[in-house]
Amino acid sequence: AKKPRYEYNLVRVDASQSKITTFMAKSQPETPIGSQIPRSSNANQEQEEEDDDDDEEEEQDTNEDEIHEERHADLPNHNQTQLQYMTNTKELTTINLKSILDLRGKLQTYHSKPLTELFANLTYIGIIDSTRRLCSVQYDVKLLIIDYGSVTNELFYQLGLLNFGNFGTIELQGTDEELSIESLLSVLYKDPNFKPSKSIKEVEQCILEMSEMYREYFQIQFTESGIIKTIPILLKNYMPPLEKLPMFLYRLSTQVSYDDEQCCLDGILRQLALFHIPLSLNEDDDSKVNELNGKLENVLIPQIKRVLVAPNWLKKDVVEVADLPGLYRVFERC
């Protein structure tokens, strides 16, 4: 006999219907939304439980600290700095570096099929906490909260890895003084809470020694006098927050191991990904939050759905908060 189809097992897919955000009034609770969401487990989500290697888990914990410990600065005349896309006329290069091929292979090693399917078929609802970088999405009959900081970090890392050696270019247009490594770092070093492990000169020297590699593989171009001219395009129609440029330069010198090729390339790609993560925003800044919401809905989430190969460690950044059958069981008693 054919099983009956109950309403609570159906999913609304009509794009013309109102989203849940239509009925949500903005408020300012003392405790941010999602502050009680456990980040270390995802017990409600019906996915395969896979054990990660201890080394990988430790690596991701460190990387997560970097994601959420954000330090940026207002650059001089930042709002007036012009950015320009440059047409890349170079033919696509086939990358045969063993280090890059091995890193691409690791994506499949730590791939979670159920989680990848979730990201490929989700429907974006909206930002619920721009300070903690949390947004809500729907998947099947479930309402979920995801940490878009962690998810976009993995997205940009994978985009960098897959497009390695074939990036487009964004030209930074400003005065030499504004775009010099020394000037950019000085903004960061003026922060009394910032505890650098290297001097500005040491950071600049390290970067300039590797400038040829940055230019060839990553389209990050420096002049001999230490002026940054270009940065790579990881995702069209998305601009990295330039407030994070000083920290990006600092981390290139202090957080990347240049002694081993694979560690070096992987480290630079990780720092590029951190540089591209959306800023944590004050919820009172409506214009910036609305702009970010549009970028998530129209640029970032569609790209996540298309290309993200979700690793196991992203499970902790996806939390189920409700499901349609459960809501029916609650409200049918009313």
UniProtKB/TrEMBL annotation:
Q: Name one Pfam family in it.
A: Mlh1_C
Compositionally biased region (Polar residues): 21-44
Per UniProt, residues of the DNA mismatch repair protein Mlh1 C-terminal domain are 96-334
Question: What superkingdom does the record give?
Answer: Eukaryota
**Residue ranges of the region described as Disordered:** 21-79
- Composition skew (Acidic residues), residue ranges: 46-67
- Name of this protein: DNA mismatch repair protein Mlh1 C-terminal domain-containing protein
Q: Which organism is it from?
A: Wickerhamomyces pijperi
